Amino acid sequence: MRRGFRFWGLVPAWVLMAVTLLAPLVIVALVSVAKRGAYGGFEWDFTLAPYRDILFTAGWSDELEFDPKYVLIIGRTVLLALITTAICMALALPVAYVIATRGPRAKALLIYLVTLPFWVSMIVRVYAWLIILGNDGFGGRLWQFLGGEGSLLFTPTAMLIGMVYSYIPLMVLPVFAAIEKLDPALLEAGADLYASRWTTARRVIVPLAWPGLAAGAILVFVPALGTVLEPMLLGGGKQITMGTLIQTQFGSARNWPFGAAIALVLMALVMGVLIVNALRAGHKREAEA
Amino acid sequence: MTRGKAVEVFKVSKSFGDYQALKEVSFTIHENEFFTLLGPSGCGKTTLLRMIAGFDIPSTGSISLFGTEIGTLPPHKRRVNTVFQSYALFPHMTLEQNIAFGLENLGWDKARRKARVAEMLELVHMTPFAKRKPAQLSGGQRQRIALARALAPEPQVLLLDEPLSALDLKLRQAMRDELRTLQRQTGITFIFVTHDQDEALDMSDRICVLGEGRIQQLGTPSEIYEEPENRFVADFIGATNFLDVEVLSVDGPRARVRTPMGIEIEAAQKGVSGPGKATLSLRPEKIGIEDQAAGEIIAGTVTARNYMGGFTHYTVETRGAVLRVSRRNALSQAESYAIGQQVRLGIVAGSARVLGQ
Amino acid sequence: MKKSHDIRRYPGFGTVTVLFFLWLYAPIAVVIWLSFNENRIVSVWTGFSLKWYRAALDNGPLLDAVRTSLIVAVVATAIATTVALMAAMVLSRNPTMRGAKLSETVVNLPLLLPEIVLAVATLILFSQLGLADGMTRLIVAHSTFCTPFAFLPIRARLQGMSTDYEEAAQDLYAKPLTAFRRVTLPLILPGVFSGAMLSFVISMDDFITSNMLATGGTTTLPVYFFSLIKKSASPELNAISTLLIVLSLVLASAALVLSMRAMRRDP
Asked: For this UniProt entry, what's an example GO CC term (chain C) (predicted)?
């Protein structure tokens, strides 16, 4: 390939990403240390107030008091994402296993069916759960039938159902890929060495499917941290997460610097997860080399 | 016969990062020659071919095509065409379109293109298949179309990158003859890359044996086989017995050596300057056994016997060395020697080669 | 005793899988089913009717939103696919060049970041630049997050394609651009198509970014849809949802089938 194209071919991608992604992220970082504007927006005036506001509120006479409100929101968001990831893992393992042990045609069809709902608009999917989980919906009635208190909608459980539904394909696919590579002879070897089925599962299948589970965990956890729609619709606005908190600061609350600070915290969390994952993968490659 | 120089490779080196694939290689290929680059995988033969085609640029050195330096020209500006190992027939085009592709890029008009495509299809006996797509062809047919496509633009040199390796044994044999005929018919210089010594010996006018990024030997097929210049060539081409020998005296191209079997023989030498250690290469089929034994006679015991159909290979243990001997199975039921049997072997001095260490 | 001795089978796994697929498709099925419900109350079935589709098709603001979404999706897809195609060509043919890894990460960056952060970042950028035109804002932002979705299938296709074809084309005197137009592009076309379709679907479906950037005049379909949900759960929503579902499923299926078939055809 000509040297010229090597350079020019990448220019549009770099320009697009630099202008609409990298530069804006830098600006977000700058705004997070700027002063709040009187009528929304912000003023270029350095202050750490937005970060201080995450931890403290001004008390009676302007002295700072520790206020766990936002820390709790951050903690709850992380917890919600963790639970979502855990449920996805537990669900994906048997499903991926069953799919991986089918014939090639059935395998392709089932994987296709797992992928398909992922492409349906996120808002439509969440809306569907809004109907199902409502008091008149099938899910809502099942909840009442099982003796659930009050309505199911607008509870953390409703949010979790919606989140697991949104992100489960991202878990099934990598787990499937890992299990599919597994040699059936290994299971037979397990059985041959007097392991029961469940011992084989625990000591052979899960360890070998682990890379898939780990990859899936990243794919689910990262978007789950930033989730917005499920809390807004299924949580009914009562269940605040980092995503909705950011959304509100740039919307009705008109506190851009504070929103930017929360956005940066969210990004730091995501980057932390990605970096830990990359380091772990790097270690592993080194160990295997 | 004087012939023009088709390709001149002069002191060409090529490195990929730290790895040096070719080290100062120089040779000349004549017009109308069937020239083969032969060597094991990783010897640099494909790199060399790719540099002549223009897919890789030499790190240093120059390549000329009919007197014009082409070392840094892009592939589309070189009048050479390639038959790829994978054939690389464009899957979305018919055979006709594949063959016409180069002609279109050269700006030939439609009538001329059509005539040339028809001519090429005729040449490779594929006329009825003109409208088919490559996926509908067998391996041998694809091979022919790849040839037709590369020959159509009348290249000054045709490059063939292991074109027979994807074919099965029977077809490979037939395609060898076809390729040779095609080369004579068209009169185009062929540069053929292979790791298969049989192909190289069978088809080439001259062979360049490459090993470890260098030219090991360049010569006609019989020179390469009968008069290997070093251990690498003797080892790579055909089977041979290597014996550690002691050089007693050197007289120009010949040397007198003492073999581990105790006998002394005089044989052609290469790379030996004076008395000392050397290697003797002795082809298995050049050692006579029992009734065929001639020259220096030694005694031994058969320790293994491999029946190969046309030949039988024997492993014979003699005093001082284990020799592999092969005997052609003659018209009448050949004599066969059992394991454990005592046999007489005869070494004809003229067929052995003394090689420097 | 009728116990299976096939050690590859786990009791209960089959049941879980069947339930999983029912659960996966139940919401979609419910919405489609209820879209034909005659009753005003969304989740009470009283009879078959197409009236909500009629209502949807008569809804002026809805049609405006559809138009906005289509324009944004078409333009953003065109930009994203072009950018992605060029980057994929360079990166797949020069995997060892300086900055290749970094460039690949940058192209895929929108996939790694939470969308809300991206949305906020672009909002601040546009407000700083004084870019007020809603359509332009949407097109630029959508082009960015659609690029990796266009990039991945094209990259996969190029990686699966031997460089022999391009070399053969150049060997047969095709200039680089001719070789691209006549050989490379036709061969990677399935990848380009599926990339374009995926980015179209992603753009059509986007809510978070569009909601953040939307101005009065330029409401996309999902944003309008959201405002309807907030107002009241009208059965018209089911009709709109069904149309959106069908559009997404058709396009995504086409993209997936294309890329799968292309993969199977090649050795």
From this structure: plasma membrane
The answer to whether A113 and C21 have CB atoms below 8 angstroms apart is: yes
Mean of the pLDDT values across residues C158-183? 92
Residues B190 and B321 in one domain: no
ipTM surpasses 0.90: no
Smallest CA–CA separation between A62 and chain C, in Å?
30
CB contact under 8 A, C167 and B80: no
Find the closest chain C residue to A113 by CA distance. Answer: C21
Structural domain boundaries enclosing B62: 5-231
Number of domains in chain C: 1
Domain assignment of residue C170, yes or no: yes
The domain that holds C119 is classified in CATH as 1.10.3720.10
**Alpha-carbon distance A20 to A28, whole Å?**
12
CATH of the domain at B34: 3.40.50.300
Q: What are the mean pLDDT values of chain A's consecutive 10-residue runs (289 residues total)?
A: 70 92 91 81 81 79 80 92 95 92 87 89 90 82 80 86 93 90 72 72 79 89 90 82 90 86 93 86 67
A190 at C interface, C-beta within 8 A: yes
C227 domain-assigned = yes
> Looking at the 3D structure of chain B, how many domains does it have?
2
Q: Which domains does chain A have, with CATH numbers?
A: 69-241 (1.10.3720.10)
